[in-house]
Design brief:
By secondary structure, the chain is mainly β. About 5% of the residues lie in helices and about 65% in strands. The two termini are about 25 Å apart.
């Protein structure tokens, strides 16, 4: 259950059949479209709306440069103060909503939208984010699903970034001597005004007895000339009870490139270590460390990461 995946929980319950599992199994089967009869009209299965306050920290509120000076050959340059990355605490609000419909036997569609606004009083800067998607899920075999999605992403700081995308994901459940597993492979094509980009990823989510929920993943991104974007990456996360509270420890690696700095190709290797744990039933805290190793000294950076996830109100 702590894996966060309904499919993995459903698969594990079917395989182990613990007491009290029947109610959950019936609920999942309905949400998966397994209870939809042939010829029956589409029907609404679930809907939810949330709103919650935000308290965060942003290390680059203005999309600025991480350093205040840099050198090119024998020449030293001083970065304009307004162009240096500004860091600070942000206060804001986030809202989200989703609706789930059963279209036909084993066919469901989900509509999701989320929006957020954050303000940094120290620098009088703000940022806005919007994410929206529509996904068709097809249960194509006993333990195999295919998800086809279309979506939209928008982020505004000092400048605006928006992207439309289309994706397809295949998911397969299976068992091994270690436990129960959910393997997924996904392909995505993003469309921006200045470029289009293909991405691919593979992930394995495992419920390992005596260990916890283990998520591992690798990702690949198309190289875009003259644009600094993600080229590859990997991550691993362990989630398990620690002193009675569900705790997650994660490590992430990201390689980015394609852009240049005054004509010199730039490549960044970013390493992030995070710990996430609830303080109480209303607040989940996260703390971590991030280091960016770049071939351009200006972009060398290390920082402490802090965050508080506050409980949302549902209506």
């Amino acid at each position: 259950m702590m894996s966060g995946s309904e499919k993995l929980a459903f698969y594990s319950l079917v395989k182990t059949r613990p007491k009290g599992a029947e109610r959950y199994l019936i609920s999942f089967m309905k949400r998966d479209g397994l209870a939809h009869r042939k010829g029956e009209s589409p029907r609404k299965l679930a809907a939810d709306s949330t709103i919650k306050p935000l308290l965060g920290y942003d290390s680059n509120l203005n999309n600025g440069l991480p350093g205040s000076e840099f050198a090119i050959g024998d020449l030293n340059f001083i970065v304009d103060e307004e162009s240096v990355a500004k860091k600070g605490i942000t206060l804001g609000i986030a809202a989200s909503g989703y609706s789930l419909y059963s279209l036909a036997p084993k066919q469901t569609v989900t509509f999701k939208i989320a929006a957020s606004y954050e303000y940094a009083p120290e620098h009088d800067l703000d940022k806005t984010g919007i994410n929206a998607s529509t996904c068709l899920q097809s249960h194509v075999a006993r333990w195999t699903w295919i998800n086809s999605c279309g979506g939209y992403r928008y982020l505004k700081k000092t400048s605006e970034t928006e992207e439309k995308y289309a994706s397809i994901r295949g998911t397969q459940m299976f068992s091994s001597v270690l436990g129960h597993h959910e393997a997924s492979i996904a392909f995505e094509r993003g469309f921006r005004e200045d470029y289009t980009k293909s991405r691919a990823s593979f992930s394995l989510l495992s419920a390992v007895k005596g260990v916890g929920a283990v998520h591992t993943g690798i990702r690949w991104g198309e190289h875009i000339e003259q644009r600094h974007t993600t080229l590859s990456g990997a991550n691993i996360t362990l989630t398990r009870p620690v002193f009675g509270k569900t705790t997650s420890i994660s490590f992430d690696y990201n390689r980015a490139g394609g852009g240049t700095h005054f004509g010199q190709p730039r490549t960044d290797h970013t390493y992030t270590l995070m710990v996430r744990r609830p303080i109480n039933e209303h607040i989940i805290a996260s703390v971590g460390y991030q280091f960016n190793d770049s071939n351009i000294d200006l972009y060398e950076e290390n920082q402490i990461l802090l965050g508080l996830d506050l409980k949302a109100w549902r209506f």
